[in-house]
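During the second half of the funding period, the structural biology subgroup turned its attention to how the target accommodates small molecules. The most pressing case was iron/sulfur cluster, which had performed well in the primary screen but for which no bound structure existed. We therefore specified the complex as follows and requested a full 3D prediction, including the ligand pose.
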Amino acid sequence: MSLLQKLKNSVRKRSIHVSFVDTASCNGCDIEILACLAPRYDLEQYGIYVHNNPRDADVLLVVGAVTEQWIDKLPMLWDKIPEPKVAIAIGNCAISGCVFHRPGSYTDPPVSKHIPVALSIPGCPPRPDEIIQAILAVAPIAFKDYEKKL
Amino acid sequence: MTSLSAYLSHMLRAEWIRSFFLVKTKPLTKPAYFMDYPIDTGKRCTHCFSCMMICPVPDAISVLMVGETEGEDIWKPVLYQGHCIRCGLCVEICPERVLASGDIIERVRQDSTYMQSTFHILVNEGKCAGCGTCSIACPVNKEIDPILASKGTTTSDEVIMRVKAGVMRVLHEEKCTGCKTCVLHCSYQAMDVARVIECLQYESDDETSATNEGG
Ligand code: SF4
Ligand code: SF4
Ligand code: SF4
Ligand code: SF4
């Protein structure tokens, strides 16, 4: 691997742009993501930056059990993200539906049914450190040597 | 040219490079009191199914027979991440202290609390087809009458419930452990198990029994 490529990869590791979407959760996971931004965890020191617009992001954090209204909108939103991209399912709702996954409920979990999910973070909700560690673990693998994979 | 040199002199400062590549705060750790996924302490599980009964989430915990030693079955509670919400109720209710998570057991011992439960099996006669699926699915029934487990029919009156003369009869409600397996397997949604849990505290002069229980 050339020196330039190595430099590119190590810079990419410290420049991860995330956007997040809530497809109907109880708000617990949203609060934990919010806690990542607060000074105690200070997400930006890890080189993770949050964007409101999915078009600016590389990583989509998905929370929630996917209500009927999200079934067509979630893939639409996923398509808006430019390559390279990964989706991370956060919390039990996104992974299994958890307590909302009962007969007669208006949800359609898991998230991986609707968009490709690279990594799941179980927990109800997961701790901020679990979220940060997961993003830091998946992003370097997903974006490493991306231009060579084209 | 000046802008390029200004850019380089800004970006190549040691301080900037350090803050770009390195993290300022201490590594992320979990506090000791954090209630993580319950872990197996290796104590012997008596398959009372209390943990399955109290769990608020569908499919988060199952008590499974995992092997056999010297003619005795080995049972173990198995947890499913992605379902379990780390509420710790199974840790608190387990009479054998098979599970552990955070400082739950320590706090239960300190506060001398315990849980008491009763179960009520309700069969909706209008919906029930008398198929007997519930009595075959019930793990307690299977243990009471091994013939039921292998053949699917029983003539024993010791089981919790069985079909008698085409009608589902509940015979021994008091043996029910509240695991809700029967509810899950009824195709007609005719069955429900009401679980009544009381959280109680030992009186202070009752302290000795509390210590024994918590042991
Ligand atoms: S409550 Fe404890 S002893 Fe009872 S089945 Fe669960 S793990 Fe086993
Ligand atoms: S911690 Fe709570 S959700 Fe998890 S298995 Fe135990 S009772 Fe169920
Ligand atoms: S499984 Fe349901 S329908 Fe069948 S006997 Fe039991 S309660 Fe009745
Ligand atoms: S809840 Fe149903 S399956 Fe479980 S022990 Fe009671 S009667 Fe049997």
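Two results from this model are relevant to the next phase. The first helix of chain A runs from residue 3 to 13. Chain A has six helices and five strands.
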